Amino acid sequence: MPQTCVASAPGKVILLGEHWVVSGSYGLAASISLRASVECEKISCNKPEVHVESVLGSTAINVKELEECRGPLCGLGYAARYLAKALSIEPSCVQCRVFSQIPVGAGLGSSAAVAVAFSAAYAGVHGIELDRDLINKAAYAAEEYNHGHPSGIDNTVASYGGFVLYKRGLGVKPLESRVELDALVINTRIQRSTRKAVEYFQRNLSLLEGVRDELIGLVDRLVLKGVELLGKKDLERFGRIMFLSHGLLSGMGVSVPELDWIVHTASAHGAYGAKLTGAGMGGSAIVIGNREALSIVERECMKKGFEVYQVRLGVEGVKLECR
Fold first, then answer.
1. DSSP per position, 239-275
2. What digits encode the pLDDT tens for the residues 22-35?
3. All domains of the chain, ordered by start, with CATH?
4. What is the pLDDT of residues 241-286, one digit of tens each?
5. Of 55, 162, 41, which is closest to residue 114 (Cα–Cα)?
6. Which segments of 63-209 does DSSP mark as H helices, in order?
């Protein structure tokens, strides 16, 4: 049985449909090449504890006494407990170290990527080979602790990679397309509350009672058309849908001037598409385009003091190596 395992999992962006999925439309997400890594090794101690070290601090989580745990890392204990029950194994004492390229609080799925990488590494040191279905469910248990009732998009993208289609009631479906795209993720550094953004969007949508269903239906069709265009690698037309999607979100009040500026700058310099990604009201934008356009947009955004990441979309999901 291996003593040390290292797993990594990607962050994510929402390409189309965020906010509208709450009201029943489709949403499209993609993995990004920013990854979180977790290294776990067995250690000697008298309790079934997970000792975690990360930028969020250090803590010891007793897998059998989770109700007593407090803090942002406790969700990992719920993932460990899920794995122990699902695999009928006795949890060991494990030391884990978290390393992440994914900025926290930027809407890029940081907590889910850590939860997925942790789940894979924790299962690995107990002699369990990589099982993405199992890891996805374990990570969802951690996300439930962190976020209450998450959609499951973030942990599914981190587990399987690639592109993921989501619809409330139908669940989360990884797509077969293995397209990889060059993109920029641009973090405005503006902190925002996902809950407040969702509430504000829904309030504004309720004011459009006469056309509410038509708008939701329109977004539904845009997302499905986007999936079709992505499969054909028709990035220019896909980008047009991104620009339109941002306009709808901005019209619903969940953009901010900084995000609008990024989108307008991307359009002016020939990018295929750009939009806010995630909850909006701050956070990040995603831009796709050829390398020349992306280089110009990156330079302009850095002048504004934004945090810019060169990424690939549609990359591989969780990976595990044990020794």
1. HHHHHHHHHHHHHTT---HHHHHHHHHHHHTT-SEEE
2. 888 999 999 999 99
3. 4-177+318-322 (3.30.230.10), 181-313 (3.30.70.890)
4. 999 999 999 999 999 999 999 999 999 999 999 999 988 999 999 9
5. 55
6. 75-87, 110-125, 132-147, 153-160, 194-206
